[in-house]
Design brief:
114 residues, alpha/beta, three-stranded parallel beta sheet, 4 helices, 38% helix, 11% strand
């Protein structure tokens, strides 16, 4: 969904492409993977994409690969919950704190298991 590694360029066309692709995918597909870069960084666009996926593929499980750092903002988490999408599986690259921190280049994060 966005450049990896993050770069100072306009990635909006990628989101537009994702919306177009949602309309082309067979509505009976059981699972759709979403990754990036980091898909949650494009907050409003990501929410719009989740809303569109819920409408276009209501019975499709969305498997979203994320590092989870955007979920430190509880308002953002609440916005995702308010969409009411019941078919989301969140994938995290590592639940082992030192490895997870290395992957996302952060010095310290509260483990998601706490």
């Amino acid at each position: 969904m966005c450049s990896q590694p993050p770069r100072n360029l306009d990635d909006d066309w990628r989101i537009d492409e994702c919306h177009k692709l949602l309309e082309l995918i067979d509505s009976n597909i059981p699972i759709l993977g979403i990754s990036g870069g980091e898909p949650t960084l494009a907050r409003n666009e990501f929410l719009s994409l989740l809303k569109h996926a819920k409408k276009a593929l209501p019975s499709t499980l969305l498997h979203i690969l994320t590092n989870g750092t955007a979920f430190e903002d509880y308002r953002y988490v609440n916005e995702i919950v308010q969409l009411g999408h019941q078919q989301i599986l969140w994938g995290f690259p590592s639940m082992v704190l030192p490895l997870r921190c290395m992957i996302i280049t952060r010095k310290f994060l509260v483990p998601l298991t706490e």
